[in-house]
Design brief:
The chain is α+β, with helices and mostly antiparallel strands. The protein folds into 5 domains: 99 residues, Flavocytochrome B2, Chain A, domain 1 (Roll), CATH 3.10.120.10; 32 residues; 93 residues, Immunoglobulin-like; 103 residues, Beta Barrel (Elongation Factor Tu (Ef-tu), domain 3); 133 residues, Nucleotide-binding domain of ferredoxin-NADP reductase (FNR) module (Rossmann fold), CATH 3.40.50. 21% of the residues lie in helices and 32% in strands. The protein is built from 12 helices and 26 strands. The strands form 5 sheets. It has a 6-stranded antiparallel beta sheet with strand order 18-17-20-14-15-19. Strands 24-23-22-21-25-26 form a 6-stranded parallel beta sheet, sandwiched between helices. A 5-stranded mixed beta sheet has the order 1-5-4-3-2. The protein starts with 37 loop residues before the first helix and ends with a strand. The N terminus is likely disordered. It binds protoporphyrin IX containing FE. Protoporphyrin IX containing FE binds next to helix 3, helix 4 and helix 5.
Length: 512
């Protein structure tokens, strides 16, 4: 269809994207039926089956018409001005039918942005695209009846709260520059001591004529483009001194710059992708890979603890994006510090996984697009807790790697880890955990639980249960303990229920 853009649509609400605070319990992924994987969806969309039901000519769709299609057997959704027939997609939606149906028959743009704005719906739903939404004039949408007023009031309260966060961040920065023979340094001055070099993700683009600056935090993201006055080399570093300093190398040494260039704030925040090179690949277990990537020289990005990056790939013409936790090469190396050039990811290989195969076939030296990091968790959430309890199933441990490392090497917190696997061969970093237990004797304890152990296994067996949780964490410790949970949704759901049963407060639990 000619009017479908290949990449992201321009956001319909062109204001700066406003982040929302992370829900504390945010795991809602549901297990899909057999034959309903992403690969199956791609196959169906390419099969030539009519998924639109409205013919191939794009339609102009009114809100009134859209509203009629709000049932599972006839569901349309509008996102960023474009309308899709999602009836057949429902079974394939990893967040489940009930979640997706929240957007059916509606302009679901803000809902979509809140949940997973990085999902490449435009490419994934291309074969279900039926037309564009006729934008109604604001005056027509405000009906002065008490029932319709209640909705906007709730939304307004929320929006103004978000806008005040947004303004706070905006007010933080003033720009300036300084230079010498070789370098031009762009300064982002802020009153807040909380702004760090890791909040700045910068890319030199347009052959050294342009600088893209994203300022990323847990509450909001800002995005700027700087058209540089003169050309710079393809190398960048960012430091924090009195202000944040973006250090660029002049292409023409000795040229005096009158200014650094023209700064423009981008109207919407869109995850930017840059090609990253695979440096090495090794096995952590029989089905789990540790991948070491390098950012291009023209990029500065230091994903903080708790952040995930996005990998993007093209499967049969459908663009797929997926978040992966930023991991680390070794959990026993107390001196490890992430830098702005390298990062690691731990990836479990599934035989049917759309991205798994891409990673299996990716060889050192090859490139893959990696998007700007995002974070749902911030270290501050655990700062007042003396003890951390981590409950992870399988590769669910990966989002916790850097948190564990931080707690042990940088704080005096006690850490208990309950690690659930099928068999002994599935346990990630088993020997490293033993080393850490010896090194942090009394501060770190790991309990391995196997669901299918061999006969020689004398540790915990079976599945998670209340008695098992009680054995791992004594009730007197509960108040001073922060709990992390991550694993397949069944594990997470059950664990959260048991934690409630043993009276762990919701505010001290975080489920990845
Ligand atoms: C607007 C209404 C929607 C709601 C409320 C919703 C909700 C959710 C939720 C709760 C999840 C689980 C998130 C997690 O695991 O952290 C999810 C996952 C997902 N949704 Fe939606 N969704 C919506 C629309 C869509 C649409 C239109 C698409 C179209 C392609 C889509 C594609 C996906 C994908 C690909 C995932 C898996 C993300 C991953 O790889 O982790 N969703 N959704």
């Amino acid at each position: 269809i000619s009017i479908m853009p290949k990449e992201l649509f321009p956001a319909a609400n062109s204001a700066q994207r406003l982040g929302v605070p992370a829900p504390v319990l945010n795991n809602t992924k549901v297990p899909l039926q057999r034959g309903r994987s992403l690969m199956d969806w791609i196959r169906l969309s390419k099969s030539g089956v009519d998924l639109r039901g409205t013919g191939s000519k794009p339609l102009q769709i009114s809100m009134e018409e859209l509203k009629k299609h709000d049932k599972p057997n006839d569901a349309w959704i509008a996102i960023r001005g474009y309308v899709f027939n999602i009836t057949r997609y429902i079974e394939y939606h990893p967040g489940g039918e009930s979640e997706l149906m929240r957007g059916a028959g509606k302009d679901a743009t803000s809902l979509f942005e809140e949940v997973h704005r990085w999902v490449n719906f435009e490419s994934m739903l291309k074969s279900t695209f039926i037309g564009t939404l006729i934008q109604e004039l604001p005056s027509r949408t405000i009906k002065k009846t008490p029932s319709s007023l209640t909705v906007p009031v709730g939304n307004l309260a929320r929006t103004s709260n978000m806008i005040s966060q947004f303004r706070n961040v905006l007010q933080l920065f003033q720009t300036d520059f300084r230079q010498n023979e070789d370098t031009i340094v762009i300064l982002f001055k802020s009153d807040s001591a909380n702004v760090l070099a890791e909040n700045f993700v910068c890319d030199i683009t347009e052959n050294g004529k342009c600088l893209h600056v994203d300022i990323v935090s847990i509450t909001s993201n800002l995005s700027y483009t700087i058209n540089l006055l003169h050309q710079v080399e393809n190398t960048i570093s960012v430091e924090k001194n009195q202000s944040i300093e973006i250090i660029l190398k002049k292409s023409k040494r000795g040229l005096n710059w009158d200014n650094f260039g023209f700064l423009m704030q981008n109207r919407s925040f869109q995850t930017k992708f840059r090609p990253c090179t695979l440096v090495s690949k090794s096995n952590v277990t029989h089905d789990t890979l540790l991948l070491h990537f390098r950012f291009p020289d023209s990029t500065h990005m230091i994903p903080p603890i708790g952040a995930h990056v996005f990998f993007q790939t093209n499967v049969d013409g459908v663009v797929i994006r997926r978040p992966y936790t930023v991991a680390m090469p070794s959990i026993t190396d107390g001196g490890y510090k992430i830098d702005s050039k390298n990062f690691y990811a731990v990836i479990k290989v599934y035989s049917t996984g759309a991205l798994s195969n891409v990673f299996v076939n990716l060889n050192p030296g090859s490139e893959i697009p990696v998007g700007t990091y995002e974070m749902k968790f911030h270290l501050e959430m655990i700062s007042s807790f003396k003890q951390v309890f981590m409950l992870a199933a399988g590769t669910g441990f990966t989002p916790m790697i850097r948190i564990l490392h931080h707690c042990l090497f940088k704080t005096d917190k006690k850490v208990k880890l309950g690690l659930f696997n099928k068999q002994q061969r599935d346990i990630l970093w088993k020997n490293d955990f033993e080393t850490l237990q010896r090194q942090f004797n009394g501060r770190f304890l790991v309990n391995h639980v196997l669901s299918h152990p061999d006969q020689a296994w004398d540790g915990f067996k079976g599945r998670i249960s209340i008695p098992m949780l009680r054995e791992m964490i004594s009730s007197c410790e509960i108040d001073s303990t922060f709990v992390f949970v991550c694993g397949p949704s069944a594990f997470t759901k059950l664990t959260l229920k048991f934690l409630t049963d043993i009276r762990v407060k919701c505010s001290s639990v975080f489920a990845f």
